[in-house]
Amino acid sequence: MKNNLKNWFRSGSPWVWLNAGAVSTSIIMVAALLILIASRGLGHFWAKPIMEADYLETDGSVSRLIGEIHGSEIVPAARLREGGMVLPQDIDTVKRLLVKTGNRDTGGLDFRWVLERQLRDVGTPEKLMTLERYEWGNFYGYLKEVSKGGEAIASGDAAWEALQPLIERVTTLRDEIKRIERNEIGAINYQLERLRLAERRLELDEVDRDDPRYAEIAAERAAQELEYQGLQQQLHDLYREIGRDSLTGIVMDGREVVVPLSSVVRAYRPNEMGFFTKIGFYFAKLWEFVSDDPREANTEGGIFPAIFGTVLMVILMSIFVTPFGVVAAVYLREYAKQGPLTRLIRIAVNNLAGVPSIVYGVFGLGFFVYFLGGNIDQLFFPEALPAPTFGTGGLLWASLTLAILTVPVVIVATEEGLSRIPRSIREGSLALGATKAETLWRTVLPMASPAMMTGLILAVARAAGEVAPLMLVGVVKLAPSLGLDGNAPFLHLDRKFMHLGFHIYDVGFQSPNVEAARPLVYATALLLVVVIILLNLAAIAIRNHLREKYRALEH
Amino acid sequence: MSLGFTAIRLLGVDKLRLVIYLSYFRHMMPVMTSLAKSSTRHSLSGSTSSRRHRWRMLKDKLARHGVAIGGIGVIIAIVLIFFYLLYVVFPLFVPASIEKIADYPLPGEGRTLGLDIEEQSGMAVRYTDAGQAVFFTTADGMPIEEIPLSVAAGNTHALMPGIAGSNRVMLGLEQGGVLLVKHGFRVSYPNDVRTITPQIEYPFGTEPLVIFEDGRTVAKVAFQETEDALQVLAADGEGKLALVRFAKETSFLSDEVTLEREMLELDGVDIRPDYLLIAPDLRRFYIASVQGALLHFGLDDDGARLLERVALLPKGQSLSSLRLLLGGISLMAGSSDGRVVQWFPVRDEHNQYHLTRIREFHSQDKTISAIASEARRKGFLVGDESGKVGIYHSTAHRNLLVEQVADNPIVTIVNAPRSDTFLAEDSKGRLHFWRVHNEHPEISWSALWGKVHYEGYGEPGYTWQSSSASNDFEPKFSLTPLAFGTLKAAFYAMLFAVPLAILGAIFTAYFMAPRMRSVVKPTIEIMEALPTVILGFLAGLWLAPVLESHLPGVFAMLMVLPLGILFFAFAWHNLPRDLRTRVPDGWEAALLIPVIILLVWFSFSISLPLEKMLFDGDMRKWMYDSLGIGFDQRNALVVGLAMGFAVIPTIFSIAEDAIFSVPRHLSFGSLALGATPWQTLMRVVILTASPGIFSAIMIGVGRAVGETMIVLMATGNTPVMDFSIFQGMRTLSANIAVEMPESEVASSHYRVLFLAALVLFLFTFVFNTLAEIVRQRLRRKYSSL
């Protein structure tokens, strides 16, 4: 046996196994990471049961506990004793549960660590109700009664039946309010601001006060304001309508709480839901996540503006990066004299892909925002000063910064594609009398287009995941309006925007209620990972396809 | 074939025949064929119009130039990054300069007691012993207004300027009183023209405040004003001192301020009080003599107390000037041989303050006759008896310039609030008005990288603290802790990533079955595309708490994993042959996956028992108590793992390529000579591929150094200099991300952040270029083999 071991070691095969272990570890890490994000991110939308139990406090008193279990961990008892908790001497470890008790309006905090061994009479009563609200976080408790205009119309089981139509009514009203506030009043505000700037512009140009243009502006403003007042009245009525109903619930400490229905997003009883109801609910939540606005300081609701901002920024970036990257690559490969200088440039371009992204952010902030943007403001938007128009971070600067960041990727990929095209093809075209430009345009570039596509996809994947430079050039945690809307000129390049990656950073690390935000961050991360992996797989597939295609030519 | 084509082109063979020849390509090149067809049609019709030909040539030329311009433009735009960073950083290293604007005789009558300049340097005021405040234009010395002060003419004896920029002075009077005067430059814009109107106010009334009740002359005076008190230290002609506190009492009914006078005891002064200074916080004051002896007094509710006695200058020199720096903490002592010595109180371990000599500036060689502090920075101006003026900065320990300003000794010097001009008076009664270009005095090599003794710190150190709420704050721009943090993070990341990535690459390239390789390689390479913000978020919110609660398990894993793998391998080796051969060679890694998962699970599950057994149930406490190691939840271990994860694919991919492309015949030769696969690998393959592996590591380091989001989220971002794996750090890149958005454009802070970006840029660029060159060499070597 001993000899065997010695021989085995001498053969070197243990080291091979250790090397294999390194590969396996890397693979496991990747898989674990993806599984972790996927499970946490997807699990968030599943309707969790609500637990009800009696909790034996360490001082002997008993209190009622209602909430969702969000996690558990095993901790050494010593650590808890150090924190001043009294525990029996004979136990070493205890299991702690993280319970989301919600009801921030009555209880203050919505998460609580409890010791599992202190729980008594754990159950999941079917009548327990979850309310998702616009403020104060979730509500957990029993429904007592439903009131219309201050008068109770139903209580007990009937209340639950009465509640759903009322919530539907409130939702319709809320959509109407949102439509008026965002679209119609938003448009009026936009016009009013435009008029204010136009007037200021006239003042700056020292146009005489008697000029008819002033009167025009004033007339238009009066018209807008009249319309505004009409809408204001409409809103006022809607607000009165939406505030009509309320419900009374009983929370875990037995108190009765009146919740205005206007703040309720949805009400459900997870404990009585069947499997298929839960699946339906799951997709409803998932849809809400990708299509709705965030609420409660980004910790609840959807991430639609972040998706929109990311996509818009990436599209703009692609518009900038593709032509420039391709032209540079064509120049380097087809026109430039191949020599030490070209080689140097090629190495430099290659290495720029390795320069830290934050450096590009610094450059973008200094050059684009402060230098270019500041000058553009001086020249073209003096009426808005001192409020900056382009002299602050925004869509345009962010996409330009990322275009510079990713242009090396496009150049390298396109160059590779160009270099794969056999010489004979170019020569054939030239021999037919085509000029170099014609050869390029009709022969070489179409053949290299998959390579360009690969470069572009890789650039998009990189841009979609990049956060550090964006933090300097225009990303915000909450953008009041999207970069694309119904107000001329429709595309607002100067606006700030939201971004998925920054959303993860901001909600995960800058949010006042990290615990509540965590599932949403996982879901956002999952979305981002999926998008980026798909983009990369697409790039790989195109590249492989390309290689296969040219293998036939390289004989 | 290409040669043939060239020949055909040269010979100008009929295109038709070529088409036939080229139909060879038809199946793969529809595009070109159509082109060929159209040109054929042209030649057949026989009317190749020369206009069309010219147009095509023109298009070709246009395309050539267009592409060239575009291509070069893009390349220039990329290179612009470097030059733009340089352009922003450059002013940091521009030396200061001064230029003369004017000199003129003193405006107004009498001897100068004090000078002050208005914010924009358009106007200045001069207090004279004739009891007047003379306001004059700085450009030509024309008096604008002479406002008589509310004192009898000829009665003013001493003047003490208030804190720089406060526009206050205190006059010492003949009958034992002092008078606080505030001069103002009221700015208004009648008819859009900036107009300055001089003003004189008396914040404590026009009546002098009594210091010496017996009416002795106030020959020297020092004062400080706080919200509720005015503290005055004065000396008479014979050197007798008085310390008086005027407490402000605001009456309830009206806003009238009444003053309550309180005389404080002052004992133990046995030197001539030539210089008197009170610190702005009213907690200490100083009395110094021309011989260089200084008495350091503490002041509290119980009264004044002599703390210590200090000799400011070496023997043989006399004290020719003494001033407080901005903030009132540092004392600047000018000597008769041209040096300026900085002192400030430093707290010792018994919580006692001792005046400590911090640094010395010796760039002038004549007696220092005047020192003026800057109003917004820790810089100061020094005038000497040869008529030279020097500009210095204390924190940066830097003499920015010394230049001849006057032909005669300088007696008074004053700095404009923005420090962009100064006014110096020489002994012959001429005023010299100069402009100063000195934007970034606080930056020097030693301030950026060296140990600096900052005000209020016990000892010199490396500190980064760029901003604070107060105005007289001393910015601390040491990049050392940030560079240290960057390297620390990169080091721990590489510690984790290099073994895994390189070993993994060796196995994948050399031993792994091709089918498995075609799955493994893309999988690991996709990791590279994972947004680092996700890794950072997982590291900060998931990994950090997990590591914290399973610390013993993590360290156990370091042992358990390799040993467990070896154990499994040996067991596998001893399996019956027919069982063993069911799994072909090259699939070891797949076999190990469940084993490793099991081992990791095992390590984590023994974590709690281990902690109980070895560390009394709490490893962090144990470490702190018995080893003195503090524990941050977001520490270098977390960063190392997360950032290691981010750089593994980079290193893996390049190293794998390098190993894989080692020509096969080399290893075949070695194997044929009887070497085992492992020997072949170690002595032939790795050796040949080592430059490639080296360049992979370099690129990995480059990536780890510049990574921002992971360190931003997975560390506490405190700029500490501690190499402990359980402490956090702040890196250059995270620092930029945190501070850049709120730094003021073109300020020193802004430019230092750009400098940090430039350092990062150069660092990664140099590393990547080196790696690239190594790789290209290697490629050439392979192709020659």
What distinguishing features does this structure have?
heterodimer; A: 555 residues; alpha+beta; six-stranded antiparallel sheet; five-stranded antiparallel sheet; 16 helices; B: 785 residues; four-stranded antiparallel sheet; disordered N terminus
Q: If you had to describe this structure to a student in words, what would you say it looks like?
A:
The complex is a heterodimer of chains A (555) and B (785). Chain A is of the alpha+beta class and 555 residues long. Chain A is 60% helix and 14% strand. In chain A, the strands form three sheets. In chain A, strands 6, 7, 8, 9, 10 and 11 form a six-stranded antiparallel beta sheet that branches. Chain B is of the alpha+beta class and 785 residues long. Chain B has 19 helices and 31 strands. In chain B, the strands form eight sheets. In chain B, strands 6, 7, 8, 9 and 10 form a five-stranded antiparallel beta sheet that branches. In chain B, α4 crosses α19 and α8 (532-549) packs across α14. Chain B starts with a helix and ends with a helix. At the A-B interface, α1, α2, β2, α3 and α8 of A face α1, α2, α3, α4 and α6 of B.
